[in-house]
Design a protein that fits this description.
Elements lengths: L1 H13 L5 H19 L17 H18 L1 H9 L3 H20 L1 H9 L13 H15 L8 H15 L6 H16 L7 H10 L1 H14 L1
Helix pairs in contact: 1-2, 1-3, 2-3, 2-5, 3-5, 3-6, 4-5, 5-7, 5-8, 8-9, 9-10, 9-11
Length: 222
């Protein structure tokens, strides 16, 4: 199990690899780890055959918490790395960066640490200040926001959906949601992503309150 944990730690580091294919593969693997843990869906991941059924959630929570800590602490380096990747590879960097920011800003990463070590009262919550969290979330949003105007529809969709979720965490701003919703609805108007329409509708309806707040902010600034 120690070897599997080390492997996942090494995988996070590979997101900074100078080879685009290697870095993209690392981001994709981390995204899958986060998505499956969040959805409580346990398909086979590297190291799982070493974990019994009851311990799988705790072990995955530890892998995820460690990966989130890595991404969060090196977010500026990861942002810089993503900016020199081809657009197809850049797309896979979006979700891991946003997910890490959400988990830290909302405090869920602390819950993951406690799931990883149930009954261990020595597990401490993150001591990072609220101001540091706000700055980190804003940094990632500022990095992604220009891409809602991209000419690449898959990139607009990926950034838009993730910006919606980022807008609804502590430190999020309604105008991020407004920009994302407008970009996603523009894809709809252009008949892009017909197979994703259900996801688009769900995302927009879920975040209509953010769109309303964003419009209020816009109207007040005019």
């Amino acid at each position: 199990m120690a070897h599997a944990t080390t492997w996942w730690g090494r995988l996070a580091e590979l997101a900074l690899d100078s080879a685009d294919a290697v870095a993209a593969g690392a981001f994709e693997a981390l995204a899958r780890l986060f998505q499956e843990l969040e959805a409580r869906r346990m398909s086979r991941l590297a190291g799982d055959k070493l974990v019994d059924g009851e311990g799988a959630l705790a072990v995955r929570a530890q892998w995820a918490a460690d990966a989130i800590d890595f991404i969060w602490s090196r977010r500026n380096m990861l942002i810089a790395r993503s900016m020199v990747m081809p657009v197809e590879s850049f797309r896979v960097t979006v979700y891991p960066l946003v997910h890490a920011a959400k988990m830290v800003a909302s405090g869920v990463v602390n819950t993951l640490r406690k799931i990883a070590k149930p009954g261990d009262n020595s597990v401490a919550d993150s001591m990072e200040s609220s101001a540091e969290k706000l700055v980190g979330v804003s940094d990632i949003a500022s990095h992604l926001l220009p891409f809602v105007s991209s000419l690449d529809p898959p990139l607009v969709f990926e950034v838009g959906i993730n910006m919606l979720s980022l807008a609804d965490v502590p430190g999020g701003k309604p105008e991020w949601a407004s920009a994302a919703i407008i970009a996603i609805l523009t894809l709809w108007d252009r008949q892009e992503f017909s197979s994703m329409r259900e996801t688009i509708v769900r995302a927009v309806v879920t975040n209509l309150h953010l769109l309303d707040l964003g419009m209020q902010v816009l109207n007040q600034s005019l």
